[in-house]
């Protein structure tokens, strides 16, 4: 089962790399693309952002706490100091995303594809990564600090990351 998820994740990552998602011609307001600071400091807490896509965006000090980001996409984006406490990112995609100094505590990343993403100086207390696909080196790094139990799923962070 885990092998199939890795293969699907790799295929998806290659497709996204070769054919990046674009806002042109799509006509959807849920695709957000910017190379400037348009999103810095924004408050999206508690909002329904199902399927929202953040492509090639620098998100600094953005508040997504308790937002519904199921099926969302962070493609080639920098998330610096972002508050993702309690978000539901089930079946989301974070490809080439850099989570730096962000709060991922009590978040749900079940079945998320998070390949080629980095997690530096993040708080993952109580985060649930069940069946999420991450690079092995990042899992090892996250296991070093993994603790807590997710308040919604009841799954421990260490167990969800399959830490030794």
From TrEMBL:
Taxonomy, superkingdom: Bacteria
SUPFAM superfamilies with a match to the protein in the record: Pentapeptide repeat-like (SSF141571)
Name this protein carries in UniProt: Pentapeptide repeat-containing protein
